[in-house]
Amino acid sequence: MMWLVAVLALPVVATLGAGLWLELKPRPLPSRWLRGGLLANLLLFAVTLAAVMGLGMQEVLAAEPVAAAGDISLGRGLALLGIGLPTGLAAIAAAMALGPIGSASLAVIAEKPEMFGRTLVYLGLAEGVAIYGLVMSILMLGRI
């Protein structure tokens, strides 16, 4: 199991090392190298993550049940992970929405300063997505 964790950490360390190397010694690289390296990195990460999850599930299912830790079972643990998903995914979606909206808002405000109020409304709508995810997580947490 530890070798899979090491293989899982390898793409992350390789990406950080390549980024640091390119930062210290900048030079143009062909885009197909970068695209191929990124795809290989993502593929290795996904395959290793799936293997770690599969082997970890086997270890959890083979373990003796423990009743002393507040009755936390596999189902309760998965439920708690599922409760955190709406907040995380909504925050990612809000960030993806706020980038283009924020840059467009700044461009509009630079040309027409009187449009500031309207652009704030659009930014608030995009930020509302993250708040909705948080509200859903709180509602689901109350159901456990």
Which characteristics define this entry?
single chain, 144 residues, mainly alpha, F1FO ATP Synthase, 2 domains, flat
Write out the CATH superfamily name of the largest domain: F1F0 ATP synthase subunit C
Estimated structural class: mainly alpha
How many helices? The count is 4
Note the gap between the termini.
Answer: 32 Å
Strand content: under 5%
| Rg estimate, integer Å | 22 Å
Number of domains: 2
Please give the share of residues in helix: over 70%
Query: Low-confidence spans: pLDDT under 50, at least 5 residues?
Result: none
Can you count the beta strands?
0
Whole-number average pLDDT? 82
* CATH topology-level name of the largest domain: F1FO ATP Synthase
Could you characterize what this model shows?
It is a single chain. The chain has 144 residues and is an all-alpha fold. It has 2 domains: 1-63; 68-144, F1FO ATP Synthase. Helix content is 83%, strand content 0%. Helix 1 (2-24) runs antiparallel to helix 2 (31-62) and helix 3 (74-111) runs antiparallel to helix 4 (116-141). The radius of gyration is 22 Å and the shape is flat. The model has no long low-confidence stretch (mean pLDDT 82).
How are the elements arranged and paired?
Blueprint: H1 2-24, H2 31-62, H3 74-111, H4 116-141
Helix pairs in contact: 1-2, 3-4
